[in-house]
Amino acid sequence: MKADVSLDAWTFWPGREDLSAEFMRMLAGAQEGGSTVSECWLAASRVDPDDDGSWYREWSAIADANRERAAAAFSNGHLATARRNWLRAMNYYQTAAYPIDLSEDWRQNALVAMRDCALQYLQHRQPVGEVVSIPWLEGFPLQGYFLPPRSAEKRSPAVICIGEPGHRKEEFLSKVARHASERGIALLAVDLLGEGTDVQFEEIVRRHKLESTIECIVDYLISRHDVDADRIAILGDNWSSSFVARGIVFDRRFAAAVCDGGIWDAHERAFLRKRTLPAARDSDRNWATNRLLRSIQCPVLVTVGEKGWLEGERVVELTNQIRAEDRDLTLKIFRQGETASAQGHADNPTLANEFIFDWIASRLREVQPGQV
Question: Which of 358, 182, 149 lies closest to 256 in space, CA to CA?
Answer without folding.
Answer: 358
